[in-house]
Amino acid sequence: MGRVWSGALERRREAVAVKWTGIFLVIFSAGGFGVWSAMEWKGRLRLLELLRQMIYFLKGEITYSHAPIAEALERVGKRTHGPLGELFTGVAQNICNQEGESLQEIWRRAIKGLATGTHLPLTKEDLEQLSCLGEYLGYLDVDMQERTLKLYLEQLDVSIHYLRSNQRERCRLYTSLGFMGGMLLVIVMY
To answer: Which keywords accompany this UniProt record (predicted)?
Structure first.
């Protein structure tokens, strides 16, 4: 009889250990998702700030250096590492290859490649605005290109201001909701 009780007691201990492990994993994974969402918010802000800096450099190259668009894009792209730098240098190389495509088509294709090729914390709206920028570059005079870049910079500034002003609250909210959602799920499951 003692063996039966010790076997049942051992199975009960294992069941409790598995239950607590499951509770820990659910809370940890839900909290991790909340932390990941907060990091995405911060990453989007950093990426848009970097893009704004690159557009300022591009505006300077076009306005003051009077560099052709391919040369300006290449210079700006070489200054910046990462996917955005590769975007600019890739577009510059495609322009130089002259495969019969317009700058607008090259730019749009590069943005689609950027959206599908790498994981960037940019929203669909961010990518659409960036894609629209390419429609007005290259074939207009310097003044119109400068105005186009200024308009895009204003759009970026609005997005950056929104992200900065809501960063603290959103990051806390995402993190808290992740952990609290995990706890709620544990309560509902058990």
So the answer is: Membrane, Transmembrane, Transmembrane helix
**Distance (Å, whole) CA 12 – CA 134:** 65
The answer to whether the beta carbons of residues 101 and 83 sit under 8 Å apart is no
- Give the amino acid at 180: M
Domain ranges of the chain: 2-189
Contact between 38 and 170 (Cβ < 8 Å):
yes
Name the least confident of 48-52, 138-142, 153-157: 138-142
How many other β-carbons are positioned within 10 Å of the β-carbon of residue 84? 20
Structure tokens that stand for 128 in this block: 């659409």
Question: In angstroms, rounded to a whole number, what is the distance separating the alpha carbons of residues 181 and 87?
Answer: 38
Separation CA 111–CA 15 (nearest Å): 52
Dihedral Cα 48, 55, 107, 160, nearest 10 deg: 20
Residue 114 or residue 50, greater confidence: 50
